[in-house]
UniProtKB/TrEMBL annotation:
Xref: InterPro entries: Kinase-like_dom_sf, Prot_kinase_dom
Protein name stated in the entry: Protein kinase domain-containing protein
Residues annotated as domain Protein kinase: 13-260
Record-level Gene Ontology MF annotations: ATP binding; protein kinase activity
Transmembrane segments: none
Domain of life: Eukaryota
The organism's taxonomic lineage, starting at the top: Eukaryota, Fungi, Dikarya, Ascomycota, Pezizomycotina
Amino acid sequence: MMNCILLADGSRVNVGDMIGNGMDGFIIRKGCHVLKIPHLYENIHPDGTVEPCSENWLNVGRLEIEMQVYERLRGVPGVAECIEYTSNAILLQHYPNGSLRDYMAEHEPPPLHRRLNWVLQATDIIARCHEKGVLVFDIATRNFVLTDDLDLRIIDFSNSSLLPLSEDINRAAVDGSTVRVDLLHLSSVIYSIMSWQPFSVDCAMESEWPPIDQIPELKGLEYGQVVYKCWTRIYTGIQEMVVELRMCARTSSSTGPFEQ
């Protein structure tokens, strides 16, 4: 039995055009843009009969949610540019410099001011998403891409939650996902940038919160106190975190790194 990759309308994909395979979808190069399509397969049996995989409906649903999120975030600074979307795919701007994760693997640590700026950019981007009622969830170095000027743009909202704009996002919980979970994952990005070592934590909901002994070593780390407060759930919303980060950025040269 063989697997073939499908578009949502049932047509097959030329696997030679595929440039990425994420957790929730495939990335297909299309000129100066990329198409994101959901993970859809059909099984081709030895007798020639074709059967769609049973999980396909779930991945189509995720694509529909992601389309709604991109529409809500249209024009928001720091969000990857969404050109258009159809029932089959989301057409996005292509960022040739790739993801922050790949950049970290291929380059030595850039100057401190560049890394400090990335931390502020990443936090501001998530703050804007929260202002628009979006719990992002998949906040990771693989989901920040770099522009030609090496500024950050966030991609991948397939596991995000879209809340009514009238709802207080700081009090919301969607299948266990909360603002504090977003801040936990954001703190992993901050740690990765400042230490130049990939780090992530497995936490899909507050009930799965990791024990404090899993926190990475923060001694001597710029912004370490911010990472610590995310892990210990001190912040009630991202704006508190933004304020502290900006205070730390203004005084980093004089106050030095975090000492626990």
